[in-house]
Amino acid sequence: MLKTKGKFLEVRWHARAGQGAKSAAQILAEAALDHGKYAQAFPEYGAERSGAPMRAFNKIGEEFIRSHSPVLTPDVVVVLDDTLIGSAPVSNGTDEESVLIVNTTRSPEWIREKTGFRGKICTLRATDIALEEIGRGMPNTVMLGALIKVTGAIPLEAVENRIKSTLGKKLPEKVVEGNLKALRRGYEEVCCVG
Amino acid sequence: MIAEKTRLAITGAEAVAHAMRQINPDVVAAYPITPQTPIVENFAKFVADGIVDTEMIPVESEHSAMSAVVGAAAAGARAMTATSANGLALMHEIVYIAASTRLPIVMPVVNRALSGPINIHCDHSDTMAERDSGWIQLFAENAQEAYDLTIIALKLAEHESVLLPVMVNQDGFIISHGVEPVEILPDDVVRNFIGEKKPRYSLLDVENPVTYGPLDLYDYYFEHKRQQVEAMENVFEVFPKVVEEFAEISGRKYNFIEPYRLEDAEHVMVALGSTNGTIKDVVDELRAEGKKVGLLKIWMYRPFPKAEIQRELYGRKTVVVLDRSMSFGAEAPLYAEVKSALYEAPAKPLMGSFIYGLGGREILPEHIRSAFEMAVAGELVVDDQKYLGLRE
Question: How many C-beta neighbours within 10 Å does residue B210 have?
Fold first, then answer.
């Protein structure tokens, strides 16, 4: 498991509203709880409009998490949309120990140059994977798979089971299957440097 | 016996919707759009799915929501609503009527700032505007407490020597929209705990006609107000019994206040709501550095548990009070009342008032630490209102 700065693993998600970052953070918290860990998931609310930059957060730990302070020094930053690179402050509160995971077809060098991020940079073509597996460019489950691989916070199976039960309630089986494949491909195809 | 539990990762709003599902009220009247909370959104799904028997009344305003709930409760129904921020402010007139009519209504409130300027985020100014309305006010630290206190509130409200409405407060977004682990009790355990409602003075009981809300001028109004004081006093007798019974079914213990690491604490912080969790972590850090600090969390704000607060705060060197609302031109609400409670203290502690988190401004561990450090250094000034996380 990834070494964390504090008592818990802290994650900050950057996305555009409608890309499913809030749902991904919630599924991660539910899966962590199913796996016997403690977790929080909380989105940041502002003016809600599709496509606007938004953030969501996770804390995951071995003990009950009492603190309700915001995530300021994330161990992992997940970016669901690379058009946010250079505009959203994705490097805020990070250092050499932090990890940045970006949905992009561009190179890690480009991301490092644009963001000044000093830690490990991981990339994957999450939108392409989502289009291939789900038929929609919804990158959230792909990025969740990548996050699980990079952090080792909980087993991938815990997330798979949660996706089956949560998405299974409201989406057709084919879409659930697509999301499970997308999750696994995110887990397998994420590449890290630095 | 402690019942078997279901543990879910849900928001504070969903947790309270589950409590309402288990309470299965006869009537829920609510304004269905902003500033309504996901509590009502989630509960409406239970109604639509036929999971509860509730008569759901979507009304055209919060003023009407509380009016409909007052009517239903007077008729003998178990009636609930939920609201937030300006919605609560719009209810204000009827909030007083619910209390003075002695109707045991339970209302979850998601605490958010009052406009203006327009703001949708957390602070306590909405509920503080109702502190003299005659409602019992409970404050939850997290989603679990929001769930538990909603169930506790119902039993407390309906107790025959109380018969007062209860607001169950949870911090807007931080708790209402944050996903946390929550243990849900089995439905039948909650049903047995709250029991059947047996209204003593139902409007529908035509054999024993009663009048609600009559004209009550200088002849009896004053006496009726005095009775509200009495009902509030009775809460001090009834609440400990209700929370003891709740501990038997849940294993979770509640009280008027929660002392945290107070045994030998010289410097004590007092606060309401979700920030208490963050303060506990800071207390642990400062304790590890050898500083004798502690926390006094307030679960019940109305009636104000003065005796318990005196018992915990007498003999401390300093008392730091955190308020998430202000009283412009006067001391902040919680500070003023804690200070008043310490008027008769044999040795008065040094006190400090800190305003934080208005309109959702973040409250960080370092802010809490800085307030504690001022206390430890003896730098508090009793009449100097300070601000945490404010740009000046």
Answer: 10
What is the residue range of B23's domain?
A: 6-250
Instruction: Say what the pLDDT of residue A106 is.
Output: 97
In the block, tokens 């239903």 appear at B72
Segment A126-140, tens digit of pLDDT: 999 999 999 999 999
Q: Does A61 touch chain B (CB under 8 A)?
A: no
A122-131 long-range contacts, CB within 8 A, separation 24+: A122/A146, A122/A150, A122/A190, A122/A191, A122/A192, A122/A193, A123/A190, A123/A191, A124/A186, A124/A189, A124/A190, A124/A191, A125/A189, A126/A80, A126/A186, A127/A103, A129/A182, A129/A185, A129/A186, A129/A189, A130/A182
Is the domain of B124 the same as that of B30?
Answer: yes
Total domains in chain A come to 1
- How far CA B163 is from CA of A67, A81, B24, B65, B234, in Å, comes to 35, 54, 19, 20, 10
Tell me how long chain B is.
Answer: 392
Residue B1 maps to a domain: no
Q: What does the pLDDT look like over A133-183, one tens digit per residue? A: 999 999 999 999 999 999 999 999 999 999 999 888 889 999 999 999 999
Q: Do B277 and A25 touch (CB under 8 A)?
A: no
Q: Are residues B275 and B229 in the same domain?
A: no
Asked if the model's pLDDT at residue B335 lies above 60, the reply is yes
Average pLDDT over residues B54-61: 97
Q: Is the ipTM of this complex over 0.90?
A: yes
Contacts of B364 in chain A (CB under 8 A): 69-70, 72
Opening angle at CA B143, ends B284 and B308, nearest 5: 60
Contact status, residue B340 vs residue B363, Cβ threshold 8 Å = no
A45 vs B: CB within 8 A? yes
Nearest to A60 by CA among A38, A28, A30, A36: A38
Per the document, the length of chain A is: 194
What phi, psi does B58 have (nearest 5°)?
-80, 120
B251: left (phi over 0), alpha (psi -120 to 50) or beta: left
E strand or H helix that includes residue B106:
strand B106-111
Whether residue B278 sits in one domain with residue B245? no
The CA angle B351-B352-B357, to the nearest 5 degrees, is: 145
CB contact under 8 A, B177 and A29: no
- Say whether B365 and A67 touch across the interface (CB within 8 A): yes
Residue B84 to residue B23: CA distance in whole angstroms? 21
Min Cα–Cα distance to chain B from A178, Å: 24
Kindly report the CATH number assigned to the domain that includes residue A161.
Answer: 3.40.920.10
Reported as type and span, the H/E element at residue A137 is none
A67 domain-assigned? yes
Residues in Cβ contact with B242 at an 8 Å cutoff, skipping those fewer than 6 apart: B152, B155, B156, B159
Contact criterion met (CB below 8 Å) for B268 and B294: yes
